[in-house]
Amino acid sequence: MTEPKPCIFCSLPAASIIDNNALALAVRDIFPVNPGHTLIMPKRHVSSYFDLTDHEVLAMMELLRRAKQSIEAEFKPDDYNIGVNNGPLAGQTVPHVHVHVMPRYRNDVDDPRGGVRNIIPERAVY
């Protein structure tokens, strides 16, 4: 029997953490979609967003707001996408829930309409 892979988010080096509170932490994405792409996650190992406690959700939202301030100061984006991939069929590749805070910049794509709806491009524009 093979051992399960250790969760990379449960053993992050302290130097990679850019902000934290009692229940959550923030790191820059190591494969950023755009400059400033940040991940917000609970400290407790939880796979699904829907299994977070109310306190963890609030802690993560506190860090999301602080991440926006930090990203604004350092990267000066025009807008943001905020999203969660919940489960393998939704594209989740790390089984530790995390919120993507993705800064958007003018002309980073030809047509940004549809935003997160673009996961199925033919259904993005309505």
Short descriptors:
HIT family, subunit A, globular, single chain, 126 residues, 20% strand, 5 strands, alpha+beta
Protein described:
The chain is 17% helix and 20% strand. The protein is an alpha+beta fold and 126 residues long. Strands 1-2-3-5-4 form a five-stranded antiparallel sheet, covered by helices on one side. The chain is globular and about 45 Å long.
- What separation lies between the terminal Cα atoms? 48 Å
Quickly name the level 1 CATH class.
Alpha Beta
Poorly predicted runs are: none
Compute the number of structural domains.
1
Rounded average pLDDT: 93
SS summary, helix count: 1
**Oligomeric assembly:** single chain
Helix-strand sequence: EEEHEE
Main β-sheet, spatial strand arrangement:
1-2-3-5-4
From the helix content, strand content and strand pairing, which structural class follows? alpha+beta
What is the CATH third-level topology name?
A: HIT family, subunit A
What radius of gyration results from the CA coordinates?
15 Å
- Report the β-strand fraction as a percent range: 15-25%
Q: Assign an overall shape.
A: globular
Q: Could you estimate the helical fraction of the residues in percent?
A: 10-25%
Number of strands: 5
- The CATH superfamily appears as HIT-like
CATH architecture: 2-Layer Sandwich
Main sheet record: 5 strands, antiparallel
